[in-house]
Amino acid sequence: MALRDDQLDVLRVGDAAYDYYRIADLPGIDHLPYSLKVLVENLVRNEDGANITDEHVKALLDWDPAADPSREIQFTPSRVVMQDFTGVPCIVDLATMRDAVKALGGDPEVINPQVQSDMIIDHSVQIDKYGVADAVEANMDIEYQRNGERYQFLRWGQQAFENFRVVPPGTGIIHQVNIEYLASVVMTKKEESRNDSSDSSAKTLAYLDSCVGTDSHTTTVNGLGVLGWGVGGIEAEAAMLGQPISMLVPRVVGFKLVGSIPEGVTATDVVLTITDMLRRHGVVGKFVEFYGEGIANIPLANRATIGNMSPEFGSTCGIFPIDDVTLDYLRLTGRSDEQVALVEAYAKANRLWHDVNDPDYVEPQYSEYLKLDLSTVVPSIAGPKRPQDRIELAASKKTFEETLPGYVTEKTAREPIAVSTGFRGDFDLNNGDVAIASITSCTNTSNPSVMVAAGLIARNAVAKGLKPKPWVKTSLAPGSQVVADYLAKAGLQDDLDALGFQLVGFGCATCIGNSGPLLPEISQAINDNDLTVTAVLSGNRNFEGRISPDVKMNYLASPPLVIAYALAGTMDFDFETEPLGTDGEGKPVFLRDIWPTNADVEATVAANLDRDMFVADYMSVFDGDARWKGLDVPEGELFAWNPDSTYVRRQTFFDGMTATPAPVTDIRDARVLAFLGDSVTTDHISPAGAFKASSPAGEYLVEHGVAPKDFNSYGSRRGNHEVMVRGTFGNIRLRNMLLASAGCEVTPGGYTYDFESMKPTTIFEASRDYIADDVPLVIIAGKEYGTGSSRDWAAKGTAMLGVRAVITESFERIHRSNLIGMGVLPLQFPEGESAESLGLDGTETYSITGIAGLNSGVTPETVHVEATHADGTKTEFEAVVRIDTPGEADYYRNGGILQYVLRNLMK
């Protein structure tokens, strides 16, 4: 009898009975970390004797904490969640796959999500209107005008595909909706007949909730004890179609939290501290698990805030186990009593319950150990361009003054610039001034403590007569309508309104780059005088060029600190010694004078947040408003593509696809398209924000009759490959050093040197020349290539530019796997080597041999790279092949993961 059959048991919860797979008595389970126990249950439940066997389960039970990852397993997520920026191309691909199946003589309806798949439309709201009472409705109207085509397409998908639901615009942020409503911790489903006539069969299976999402901050759900992480849209599509995710059993870092947060410190300060610690420690590709008696005192909202920042740590997940805190949160957010009882019973029956006072409790073993005493955390911010670059608030002014010279150029004005506006009056603008102060993003808006703290600091500021500086664009974009409910109930929204922090929408907004335009007069003053202005946001991403094209320096901060910086108006400010203003009596008012106490925050949350709010707001979560219901939706199993659409177009990935894959070939005489440095993010590779008419994407849209005011953003146009390929490597802060190597000026943005036409040009135009001449392309980069969001177009666009291989010093996890998913070969320089140490500058031609060995079923550990310089000399080295699992090798052999899945479904 297979282990799967042997472990099937019945769990009784009150009057209900459920089948479940019992892992509590498996040998070795006691000492496993919680996260690996979740994987054990997943393997046992999905065992099929081929891809998943008893041996895989045994290997996981025999996990050696000290060992480096080497054993491959297949993880089968229970759910897939998507946001619209990365989710729309998923549905475009599924619709295109239906066309491809029909073209190959199959049944198009074989293409359907096989697991529950939910899309939350949260990334398309842009802050066009702000600081006025009707901002939220005005921005929603504009959102529908801009995105009508996309939304029609998604409504078609909601009707055409099984197991696919859409949460309409204006509801909230994907991760907040996930923890407040979609996630169930323990899921149930009706079972198919098992030819089992015994009374032991309960006919309903209970099993662990798990998910992957097309957003890297899917790890927010880790706070609930649900194992999940961000994947590229490419992997997500495969998971939707029933494909397991191939992974190596990871090292697990045990992180013990002790003590309590001191007065004046927020959950945001805690996560910035943890991010700093874990980045320094090094956790890329590892699981991080929080444990110990101290976590019983950590509210679920704080756990979710910590889990949310896992991509900023670099880890795959940052998870907390199930305990009483989990159950309390499920009750608060409106889950049924039956569901809460099931979660408790299941967790205890399968030894997943965390209670260090239980006499049977066994402390897990971990690969590495870290510890943080929360009482040592101090107020912090992070920036100006990476979330792990934490700065203690007390040192923020000094650090800013030390950093600013790196952003100042010969063109930068040294004296204040006079600005006159109709909306905000007249003022002077200086380097360091805060142009954007935005309370936004899933990191913080799911946490009532920091949102209420922001409301209370606003109340205290208003009472003292303080106002934000007139040049600051202020905004509040909550993660769910529940936030608006409790702020309104507490009367705090009135105080936020008085400071210009009116509601602007329910969505990701500033953190994804949808900060909207600055006042034209401010934007002109910045650009005419090359001013270095700043943004402060309560988000998790502050990469260069991400927040606003006018803003060079971006800082992450807690919601109350966002308000504090709006009041100060500049990053060049010491909150300890400089007053924010004066009160009615002319006395100076310092930040400490308006900062709320922890007790005030807790009391306000307790008095104004209740279960009924969640029940009411999520009762009709999939229905949408009149705008959504009024969309004209096409019907049919195949989508009726509009050839004139500039938002949604049939993909070209499957054009000319054959039933069997062509052999893998070596790469000969390739040219370098981009020669890049360290920490190149997916936002550098595939920006999400606004773009200009002079860019290749802008020129394309103008040619198709779209006015620049209607461009929208790259993120909103991810359903149109023509726009996205033109925007690949188009971030305005990207520096392609190939230009310098070719003797040209390094123009920031999507530019390169074209060795076919022997001139500098855009990356897109150069790629067209190379493709026309059948010249393969490579990318050369440094450390941490592909950090940031799980952005599938960073890989799709790379492939469509004709890039065959990317050679770096190291990769971030998601982007590496996405490259393989698009048939692009990820390679690393030999340990300790780099392009610089090998004397490479990107002007060489590259031949990469040995990868054709994949045709015989063997994945080579290294391939031979021969770089030929202009003078005919050669540099040769062995590059490490970063195809890490047999499953990834299958994807690469098929030209990509979607081609692999489609061919299998056709069989």
From TrEMBL:
Its EC number is 4.2.1.3. It catalyses: citrate = D-threo-isocitrate. It is an enzyme of class 4 (lyase). SUPFAM superfamilies: Aconitase iron-sulfur domain (SSF53732), LeuD/IlvD-like (SSF52016). Pathway: Carbohydrate metabolism; tricarboxylic acid cycle; isocitrate from oxaloacetate: step 2/2. It comes from the Bacteria. GO terms for molecular function: 4 iron, 4 sulfur cluster binding; aconitate hydratase activity; metal ion binding. Residues 699-831 form the Aconitase A/isopropylmalate dehydratase small subunit swivel domain. One of its GO terms (biological process) is propionate metabolic process, methylcitrate cycle. Keywords: 4Fe-4S, Iron, Iron-sulfur, Lyase, Metal-binding, Tricarboxylic acid cycle. Catalyzes the isomerization of citrate to isocitrate via cis-aconitate. Belongs to the aconitase/IPM isomerase family. This is Aconitate hydratase. It comes from Bifidobacterium choloepi. The lineage of its organism: Bacteria, Bacillati, Actinomycetota, Actinomycetes, Bifidobacteriales.
